[in-house]
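Researcher: First entry.
Model:
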Amino acid sequence: MTAPASTPLTPYATLLGFTRYVDRTGPTKATFVGGLRKQRASRSGFNPHGQFVKALKADIAFHTGGTHLAGVVDVVKPRWRPLYQALVPGATAWLHSLGEPGAIDLAQTRDALAMLGDLPVKINPHFGVRHADGRVEAVRLHFDETPPSEESMLATLHLMARHMDAVLPHAEPVLVDVRRGQAHRMPTDAKPEQIERWLAGEAAAFRAIWSTAA
């Protein structure tokens, strides 16, 4: 009896995966996409930042100004403690930059599925922030040791803005570089049409590499 053929994995990327892909050049793009495909096939992957994000959201929701962030370092597993110790100072600085704790509230965001040509990309901000003056921000966190490149920043902010009606209506997309406590917004001179064309080309190449890696 012949074993059934395995269902081919359709090309797919998360916002994090796709923006890391556009940041790469040359042969490293193919290596990276191949790694994503293998990870998807094995359903592997672990997010070490889960407790950190919960603590940050708790500080916003309960107007506690950083006490949850300060405490999470002591409760996380020892292997992740150095990572959290590196993240907390910058995250706390960003939290304080938002103003008085009582002047901000946590806003619920929803995931969305973006189509870049034939490539589905999952748009998943970490949370939203609602300010007392009525401003709303959809926040995506950048945890890497290196700051976000201009390419990854533009791709992240553009794709979030493109689907903001589904993610958090009327919100501005913000990419927070956690380690440095810096918030990045779309440059005023950005040209959305050019970014869209660039990302469409990147998505087509991503799909081609994914298929080749099959």
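Researcher: Second entry.
Model:
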Amino acid sequence: MTTASAVPKSPRRGRPGYDQDSVLEIAVQVFNRHGYDATSMGMLAVELGVSKSAIYHHVPSKGDLLRLALDEALVPLEAIGEDVRAQKGGTIERLEFILRSTIRVLIDRQPYVTLLLRLRGNTEIERDALQRRRTVDHKIVDLVVAAQAEGRVRSDVEPRTTTRLMFGMINSLVEWYRPDGPVSPAQVEENAIAMIVDGLRARA
């Protein structure tokens, strides 16, 4: 999917065996395993099998690693709302596009989205990321309200609660979905859309 694909990156070269992307990938695994607050640069160095100074060759601080990791989740999620398919057309069709695209990002960027969803807001970087996430959610609330006003979404559901329930189900993918499991990404997507969109449609 073009909309939710990775933002193009210029090549980054570092010390032998690692570049910034590979350091980031392993750092996210450690953050998710131990929690960001509990992870030290020393722990990351042990995991990477390098010295702390070698990590600093790639990034200035642990906070910079966190910011880069969160952008791996937030940038494609934010891009969904900027796509013309999320802005023009029928409200139900726009909602379905956003939900499908979000599911694809969660599956494609699972470790990074996991980190985003586990933030506690203890640092300015975390609080900024949480605000960006809330901005994305608020756009969905507005879309559900618009669909309701058009008579496309049933009138007996509360938009903010509905949005929380939708994303509660979708976000749970980071906890249970496994790429090597028996269920394909396409099956997950179709099942979720059937439950959410069909469940929201106004009854004739």
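Model: Note on the second entry: The mean pLDDT is 90.
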